Amino acid sequence: MTLAESTSPTEVPELAPDGHRRRIALLVVSKYGTLIAMVIMIIIFSIAAPGGSFLQPQNLLAILSQSALTAIIAAGVTLVLVAGEFDLSIGYTASLAGVLVTGLMSHQGLPIPVAILLTILAGAAVGMANGLLVAKAGVNAVIATLGVGTMVVGLSFGYTAGQPIVSLPADFTAIALGRAVLGVPNLIWLMSIVLVILWVLLNRTPLGIRIQATGANSHAATLAGVRTDRAKISAFVIAGACAAIAGTLLSSQLGSGMVSSGDGYLLDALAAVFLGSATLRDGKFHIVGTLIGVLIVNIGFNGLGLIGTPTFFQFVFKGGILVFAVALATLARRYARS
């Protein structure tokens, strides 16, 4: 048999029409499954919520406002995950920021802008500590950030003696509770600004390219001249600063600083980031996906609350939607490629 005969087009297997359609369907599910799930949830809650309350403009703004703090923290940790690392200290950093910014104003008498700036720098310093331990000392990221986070908890208790800090200036609480532009809550504007900045940083700057290269293949990036240790440290610093921003806004929203107020944002942020990784891209972490993940979780929480679902089921939903969406996207990609 000649070479031409062995490579004859008649012997090349072709994908049957049904298999081709199935592959396309699976690819669509792998990229847009979470968006489809979000649309389905919106339709269900729009029908089930009494009096059409779900689609009321005030409720939609409430969903966006409730998503703001989680989105800011999640966007910061997205950069760490893009760099190929992990950060378990972000919730504790947010709590420290809340007590620090309120204490600097209430106890030290510092002006609001100065207190906020120092608090963000403190969050960045926590991120720097994480980055140095992971990138320079070679400590496993989970162990390093968990240990640093535990120390941060100790600092929060040491600074406050476990007592909430109150008596804050009205101008400070107005930051999170106000509606400065077009009647839209300030939290939505601030979330939008942070997310746009981080999207541009990650996708349109040399630092963002280095962070992506580091996470894609650290060894290859090093051979290409990328300072992968600096890229990882930068990602941790940004995550710490974002956690501090969120903690500051949380204390403004609550009107007080409490030592554990931001701890719960760790799970919410990670759920949103991993849920977002199953959206639009093949399992890659990205800012737009993170925002979509945050919205899916908060749409579910809001809708379940409106139809009178017990509180415990809302937490079941949070974990269930994460597992289901990621598993669906993973299986769809696997079958499509096979």
From TrEMBL:
InterPro entries: ABC_transp_permease. It is a multi-pass membrane protein. Keywords: Cell inner membrane, Cell membrane, Membrane, Transmembrane, Transmembrane helix, Transport. The chain crosses the membrane at residues 24-48, 60-82, 89-106, 112-134, 141-160, 180-202, 233-252, 264-280, 287-306, 312-332. It is found in: Cell membrane. One of its GO terms (cellular component) is plasma membrane. Its main location: membrane. One of its GO terms (molecular function) is transmembrane transporter activity. This is ABC transporter permease. It comes from Cryobacterium tagatosivorans.
